[in-house]
Amino acid sequence: MSRAGSAAGALMSEPVRELARLLREMHPRLHEQRTVFCALPAGASAPDEAIAWFREAEGVSVVLPADVARTLGHRDEDAMAWITLEVHSALDAVGLTAAVSAALAAEGIPCNIIAALRHDHLFVPVARAADALAALERLSADASPTRS
């Protein structure tokens, strides 16, 4: 199936609410692109390449690809790895963020989570990306029914 066909399928999928199913079907995917959390100067607009942005009382925060952040003069020493949970999580689902946070915390892995309309996105230190994937895959496997 083409990427366009796959994307269209994702748009039509029904959101999942049941925690056990969310965990079983989360299929964490590590993006190749490294990211940087940045603050924009007052009045600045988020660049088109922004992965996410949020208007806070103190100003606009953005998540940028590391190369874009560097080009704009931001430091990229604290670059983060970006992991997407591929399950279509419902906005009103309960427990996914807590379960993921607990699994990563148990491994001492810092994590920033952004929930978008269809998927949850995790940002972890680049050096811990493989550990985070392993922890998430264990969490998913533990939620799977036992096979006889």
In short:
By secondary structure, this protein is of the alpha+beta class. It is built from five helices and six strands. It has one domain: VC0802-like.
Query: What is the CATH architecture term?
Result: 2-Layer Sandwich
Order of helical and strand elements: HHEEEHEHEEH
β-strand number: 6
- Shape type: globular
Number of helices: 5
Mean pLDDT score: 90
* CATH class descriptor: Alpha Beta
Blueprint of the fold:
Layout: H1 3-12, H2 19-24, E1 28-39, E2 52-56, E3 59-65, H3 66-71, E4 80-85, H4 96-106, E5 112-115, E6 120-125, H5 129-143
Antiparallel strand pairs: 1-3, 1-4, 2-3, 4-6, 5-6
Helix pairs in contact: 4-5
Q: Key features?
A:
5 helices; six-stranded antiparallel β-sheet; globular; disordered N terminus; alpha+beta; 32% helix; 148 residues; VC0802-like
